[in-house]
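Hi all, posting the design record for the shared folder.

TITLE: backbone redesign
STEP: 1 of 1
STRUCTURE INPUT:
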């Protein structure tokens, strides 16, 4: 079992969903990222999505796109992100899932990228701009390196396509709460029908993201899903005098919305 499998299994056994915050690696600095990961675990996160900065973010709204731009200006590279993960991994038990562009994977080569990510302590991959022609290769590499590998199920994905996507997933399935780009929303998403459709084709845990912004949203999605992903709302709060404290405080609030089974 991968670490992601173990985390979801443990949470399922206790009836507790998994809070999955997203942070941009290197925003506002790599030193902050180094400190914020253990702080998020202490605040209630079970898995953290670590966005590897890319010059042309895919489906990311203005908050995350701006954070990636700032990280790139600060000299953040995939290699430096993996070095950071390697350094902090012995101190944390939470899962780390890299959200990364397929361009970065291809630049290093899929075999090398998967091996180096796993060797550094990354537990899974999300590749939002993955071409279907690469999906089988990445699924095989995920199996070889004991990595989770999650493909995105959108509100517009037809059910036959859902079956194809989830067959390639490992660890969990990422269900988008809405179409378009990431960003904070006022209303809680209605995802129960989509989650039910996914469950018809897999026993993997389901995590819901895109627009999840408050503890109430976390409560709403974790009534039907095993995980809640929060990105823009957290990244925005890290534009603060003390970004680590701001992030940990907000994740603590979000953890209050987890619904026990």
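Okay, here is what came back for every position:
SEQUENCE:
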């Amino acid at each position: 079992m991968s670490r992601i499998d173990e985390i979801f299994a443990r949470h399922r056994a206790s009836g507790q969903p998994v809070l999955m915050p997203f942070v941009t690696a290197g925003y506002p600095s790599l030193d902050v990222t180094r400190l914020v990961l253990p702080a998020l675990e202490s605040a209630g996160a079970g898995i953290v999505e670590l966005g590897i900065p890319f010059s042309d973010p895919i489906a990311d709204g203005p908050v995350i796109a701006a954070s990636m731009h700032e990280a790139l200006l600060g000299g953040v590279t995939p290699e430096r992100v993996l070095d950071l993960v390697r350094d902090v991994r012995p101190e944390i038990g939470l899962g780390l899932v890299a959200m990364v562009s397929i361009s970065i994977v291809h630049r290093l080569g899929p075999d090398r990228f998967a091996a180096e990510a796993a060797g550094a302590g990354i537990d899974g991959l999300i590749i939002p701009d993955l071409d279907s022609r690469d999906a089988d290769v990445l699924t095989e590499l995920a199996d070889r390196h004991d990595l989770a590998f999650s493909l995105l199920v959108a509100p517009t994905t037809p059910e036959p396509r859902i079956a194809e996507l989830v067959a390639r997933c490992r660890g969990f399935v990422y269900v988008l709460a809405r179409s378009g780009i990431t960003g904070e929303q006022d209303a809680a998403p209605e995802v129960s029908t989509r989650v039910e459709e996914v469950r018809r084709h897999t026993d993997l845990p389901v995590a819901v993201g895109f627009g999840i912004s408050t503890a109430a949203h976390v409560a709403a999605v974790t009534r039907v899903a095993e995980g809640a992903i929060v990105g823009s709302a957290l990244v925005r709060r890290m534009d603060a005098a003390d970004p680590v404290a701001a992030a940990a405080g907000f994740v603590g609030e979000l953890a209050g919305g987890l619904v026990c089974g």
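COMMENT: Residues 3-255 form a domain with the TIM Barrel fold (CATH 3.20.20.70).
Let me know if anyone wants the other runs.
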